[in-house]
Amino acid sequence: MTLSEEAAERLADIVELQPTKNKALQERWGMESGSEVHQYLESELKEYYYRDENSLIRATAEARATVTGEEPDSFEVHMTDFERLVFGVAPGPAEESASVVSVLHRLREAHGDDLANDDGEEPSAKDVRRALQSLKRKGVVELIYRTVPTFRLAVERDAVEVSGD
Q1: Pfam family example for this protein (predicted)?
Q2: 89, 130, 132, 144: least surrounded by Cβ within 10 Å?
């Protein structure tokens, strides 16, 4: 996707300010409202940002590479605790991609009883799908369509520095 000069400058602002809020970008960009910021992000930079679990705006790995002009050896990605677990068991970039259910089985094999939340509930396929989609938006997992949608890491596991709560 080719960015206009304005969009490239605004993308650089996101990379610089992350994690950030609509309000900070509104002030930086001279916009009237947070809603205007959201509309701009969705229309011009949708592929280059995501919102973390606290709704803070963060740049994807692709955004950082676009701004710096180079693919980094490693990059920091914000993940929830559950996303870290999913990232840890998802097939690597050279492996065959796996379905959501397969990733759920890998989680159960790797973590067993440690997966239960505070209420004693095990994660569901829906939880795994949500985590994989989030990791896809962050640029570290890719979606591959086969008979069913499947996933695998888009980058080497050790190229990602995980941050989070």
Answers
A1: DUF5797
A2: 144
Any idea which residue has 């592929």 for tokens?
Answer: 47
- If one counts the domains in the chain, the total is 2
Strand, coil or helix: 35: helix
Looking at 48, 68, 88, the residue that finishes a domain is: 68
- Token readout for 94 is 């050279």
User: Taking the mean position of all CA atoms in its chain, how far away is CA 57?
Assistant: 11
Nearest CA among 106, 112, 75, 81 for reference residue 91 = 106
pLDDT by position in tens, the chain (length 165): 689 999 999 999 999 999 999 999 999 999 999 999 999 999 999 989 988 888 899 998 888 888 988 776 777 788 999 999 999 999 999 999 999 999 999 999 998 877 877 777 889 999 999 999 999 988 889 999 888 888 899 888 888 888 875
Tokens coding 42: 């969705």
Tokens at 128, concatenated: 């795994």
Distance CA 8, CA 68 (A): 11
